[in-house]
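hey can u run this one w/ fe (ii) ion bound, need the structure tokens asap thx
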Amino acid sequence: MSSLIDGLLARPVATIEDEVVEIIDDLINSLPDPKQLTSEERRGIIARYTSVLEGNFIYWMTAAVIAAKAEQSRPILLENLYEEVHDAHPLMLRKFAMAANAFPTDKDALAVNDYLAKVRLFMGELSPVKSVLTMGFFEGFIQKFMAYLADLAARQGSTEMEYTDVHGVCDIEHTEGLFKVLAAEIALTPPEPDADLFEGVTLLRTLIERIVRPEAALLTA
Ligand SMILES: [Fe+2]
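ok here u go:
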């Protein structure tokens, strides 16, 4: 990439990144106070989070790898997937949920089903820029959510914190990597001026909001 293009792109990507950070911070600031939650409400958040993340994170990161077209993108995304698979992150998450007595039930999975389906269909569209942006948002959110998730589990009497410890740290690097990929994808496939780049971010944000407050889903369903 020439330095001229670099310069032209630096601003939009930085603006997009700022916007993502703002959405993440809004989400984190809107989380209910764990002290005010009942034990069942705390269990439910852990369970719904687990039901969404365990089977879908690697699948959606794989979708981003398939969607990404820029030469620089693949190694960064594959590095992320390598770690997920090599260190068995889904196993780590399952252990975390089980230790907090929050292994998801059918009700937990079904409470977020419609919102999960929308994200799955969106990832299936394999849009390079939108998919990568969605995963950048997801990584960034997960990293900031870990302290809260660990707090919920601790209040449920758990001491099994490998999942939250690992993801509070490693996702910082992954998020930065994903924004490098985003810049490369925007350079290769510049989006139309009226394209909604945040389409996937909005769908995933709604899914996360339903993980936290499933009763809100009933109000808007
Ligand atoms: Fe992970």
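The chain has one domain: 3-220. anyway lmk if its weird
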